[in-house]
Specification:
The chain is mostly helical. The chain is built from 6 helices and 2 strands.
């Protein structure tokens, strides 16, 4: 049980940091679109635990491992949309929600944007890769160094 918690915590931190980085890169693209070459991206501390929740996808990833990329991606995308909606609703109750999609015609209650579906599809597959046992094996053994020339 202790090892399972350690693995979950490792995945939670890995997903949280990866999510932060993805969000900063994604939001900086708006600067690029506006030709602001400072390329400022932004995020919120609240987003770390929200992205960290992708660690909960690990057991599902094992169950879906034999399914097609489409089934896995659509499943993850749906769960990410659900998580975004629920966490956004909870944060909005205290006016703490760091996002507001009200300007998009594809928004649902200002909390999710349906036009982000392809991004969440890919993000889910990325989080699957980060939380898979193979990902853990790659990081546990340290860097791979070769003696061959």
């Amino acid at each position: 049980m202790k090892k399972a918690f350690k693995t979950f915590l490792h995945n939670f931190i890995r997903c949280g940091i990866t999510g932060w980085c993805m969000e900063i890169l994604f939001t900086s693209l708006d600067s690029f679109r506006r030709r602001d070459m400072k390329l400022r991206g932004n995020t919120s501390v609240w987003m770390f635990p929200i992205y960290g929740c992708a660690a909960f996808l690990a057991p599902l990833g094992r169950l879906l491992s034999k399914k097609s990329v489409w089934v896995r991606g659509l499943t993850y995308m749906s769960l990410i949309f659900s998580t975004e909606y629920i966490t956004g609703s909870l944060l909005s109750r205290r006016t703490l929600c760091p996002w507001d999609y009200g300007r998009s015609r594809w928004n649902i209650k200002r909390l999710i944007r349906l036009d982000y579906a392809p991004f969440w599809f890919l993000a889910g597959l990325l989080f699957e890769g980060l939380t898979s046992p193979a990902a853990k094996d790659r990081t546990d053994n340290g860097p791979v160094l070769s003696n061959s020339h």
